[in-house]
Design a protein that fits this description.
Blueprint (H helix, E strand, L loop, with lengths): L3 H10 L2 E6 L6 H9 L4 E4 L3 H13 L3 E7 L7 H11 L4 E5 L13 H13 L4 E3 L4 H18 L3 E5 L23 E4 L10 H11 L5 E5 L3 H9 L5 E3 L7 H11 L4 E7 H6 L3 H8 L4 E7 L2 E2 L5 E2 L7 H8 L3 E5 L3 H7 L7 E6 L15 H12 L4
Parallel strand pairs: 1-2, 1-3, 3-4, 4-6, 5-6, 7-14, 8-9, 8-10, 10-11, 11-15, 14-15
Antiparallel strand pairs: 12-13
Length: 383
């Protein structure tokens, strides 16, 4: 058995300052240790996939991160593991607990995942090894992990068995997160047919986001492709997969790089898919994070099947979750109001648009890793 501080301090020596995840009783000593230390950052994510995406955003900003999860929640991280960190080649250190390990009594819901945890990680092309159970094994294990992370630039995992880490007392009973009560500002026209197109909105967005000092993260589907078609700039990141993870990714980058203005362009379907992340952004989001949801009430890139957002007020959800500025409307001026906002905390806008896209919509010619490394070189970041 090891002490929490022995592993956390060894990881800190490798540059790991942020710990994101969802609690498991096996992980409690680590979580308590990190929360107690003001020099470390703990992000309590709504689910394991969001934690992974947030850590990935921090990584491209040059900040190493550790992602913690129970193996029962590994399924929530499958999409970002396969279509974000694998496709874009983003190195992250994972700690996955082993509930339901064969031969160890546990709750029935852990039985199947307990038998297949290692197999599932291997299937996801995530190499793993047992979490070090002795103090003398920590640095060699981290050295092996770092060699893989640096060489392959993809995630590496430790699987943690029960009773591996000794208990650690939690001294801080609160995360000390801000409480905000922003008023929702709404500007709607009376004519639904006059809603702007995505292309019109993105043109204005480009005008307001200079390459120097700004990063634009576009959600998967038509949004990223239209942004690319309008202007392929070094400060663009086109999220080709991991639907719903753009906002979590933006949170990680914004926290790691307070010198940058981080603008996330989301979609209504994507926002619905991981709506729990609104609460995480409202709690942890810094003032340099701008979150724009373009809502055409449809999954446009798959045939314009309707979403359920006709009666959903994302701005009121953002307000309830603690965003500092909450806007809603169906005029392009909403983009100006968002990006010129000065509220102390994360800023949000819900903009209604119409369906449809431009003719012969292209796909980015650069491969995803090239897009990412171009962005990292532009902002002066390294893994």
């Amino acid at each position: 058995m090891i002490k929490a501080g022995e592993f956390v301090e060894a990881a800190r020596a490798l540059g790991c300052r942020t710990w994101a995840g969802v609690p498991c009783s096996f992980l409690t000593p680590f979580i308590n240790y990190v929360i107690n230390d003001d020099r470390l950052r703990y992000i309590s994510s709504a689910n394991e996939g969001d934690a992974l995406a947030t850590a990935a955003g921090g990584a491209i900003g040059g900040e190493r991160a550790v992602v913690m999860m129970q193996n029962s929640g590994l399924g929530n991280a499958v999409s970002p593991l396969t279509s974000l960190t694998h496709v874009f080649r983003i190195p992250l250190l994972l700690i996955c607990t082993h509930r339901g390990a064969p031969g160890v009594a546990d709750e029935p819901q852990h039985e199947l995942m307990g038998r297949i945890t290692g197999e599932l990680l291997a299937t996801l092309r995530v190499p793993w090894e047992p979490f070090p159970a002795e103090a003398g094994d920590i640095r060699p294990a981290l050295a092996r992990a770092r060699e893989y992370l640096d060489g392959e630039q993809r995630p590496y995992a430790f699987i943690m068995e029960k009773n591996t880490v000794a208990g650690h007392e939690l001294r801080k009973k609160s995360l000390g997160l801000p409480r905000r009560e922003a008023r929702v500002q709404e500007v709607y026209s009376s004519n639904v047919d006059r809603r702007p197109s995505r292309n019109e909105v993105l043109r204005r967005l480009i005008e307001l986001t200079p390459e120097a000092g700004t990063v634009v993260i576009a959600t998967t589907g038509y949004t990223g492709r239209e942004l690319y078609a309008l202007a392929d700039r070094k400060n663009h990141f086109y999220m080709v997969g991991s639907m719903g993870c753009a906002s979590a990714f933006g949170l990680g980058l914004a926290l790691a790089r307070p010198d940058l203005k981080v603008v996330v362009v989301d979609g209504d379907g994507a926002a619905l898919m991981r709506m729990g992340n609104f609460a995480t952004l409202g709690a942890y989001g810094p003032s340099n994070l701008y979150h724009l949801v373009l809502d055409n009430e449809a999954h446009d890139s798959t045939g314009a099947q309707a979403t359920v957002t006709a009666g959903v007020s994302f701005a009121r959800i953002a307000q309830a979750c603690g965003y500092a500025l909450c806007l809603a409307g169906d005029r392009p001026a909403v983009v100006d109001a968002l990006l010129n906002g000065t509220a102390d905390g994360p800023k949000f806008a819900h903009l209604k648009i119409r369906t449809g896209t431009i003719a012969d919509l292209p796909r980015p010619k650069l491969a995803p890793p090239e897009v990412l490394r171009r962005l990292m070189a532009h902002i002066g970041a390294k893994f």
